[in-house]
Each structure stands twice: as C-alpha cells, then as structure tokens.
Amino acid sequence: MFTLSLEECEEFISGDGARLRELLxxxxxxxxxxxxxxxxxxxxxxxxxxHRLRTSEVYYLLSGTGLMSIDDEMKxxxxxETVYIPPGAIQYITNTGVEDLVFLxxxxxxxxxxxxxxx
Length: 119
Hints:
Blueprint: E1 12-13, E2 19-24, E3 36-42, E4 51-53, E5 56-63, E6 66-70, E7 73-77, E8 82-85, E9 91-95, E10 101-108, E11 116-118
Antiparallel strand pairs: 1-2, 2-3, 3-10, 4-11, 5-8, 5-10, 6-7, 6-9
C-alpha cells in the first residue's frame, strides 16, 4: 500500500507561477502510473502564466474562485468543478476571489518539464 499526505510533499513554485506539491508522479515513487497528480494554489489576485502542455490536463477545484482561460474561451470556475485542458491549448487561471484558489492537477501522460512551454 502506498499513502502520502500533502504535508510530506515539498512545495515549490511551478513554471507557471502556482504553488505546487506533486502528490503522485511515476518518477518519484515506485508506482505503475501514466499520470501525475499535483496540488496547486494560486493566491488572491494572482494568475498563472499563460502556458501550454503537450499532454492533456485536468483541474479539479477544491476551494476558491477563478477565471479559467483555455485558448479563446474563458469561464468562471469554483469548488467541485472539473476543467479539461486539451494538449497544446494555451491556458492560465486567475484567482478572482479573496481566498486561495486550490485545485488538483492531473496530467496524462505524467508532467515533464520538456512538455511545458511558458508563454
């Protein structure tokens, strides 16, 4: 059995500027995974940098409110919403609320630095 708490994961600033903790990644644990799972935080009034991945990504929002931008589309998002981001789409999210915007990110196949382009 493999378990891991959020507190056990080192926090860092991702290339797009979010506070990130990688929970599951096939390069960091002896797990048979195709995907990676991360916990992200965007502070009030902040946005992630526009970027794109070669892979698909899913956000699941836990708390806070934001404005999600994918290519030419924008949508207000909040808790218990899921956002699918197709490979190659230009994306960013803005925290439009007064509390941290907290969400999970699933990247499939697993996130790799060479698969991300910050614009």
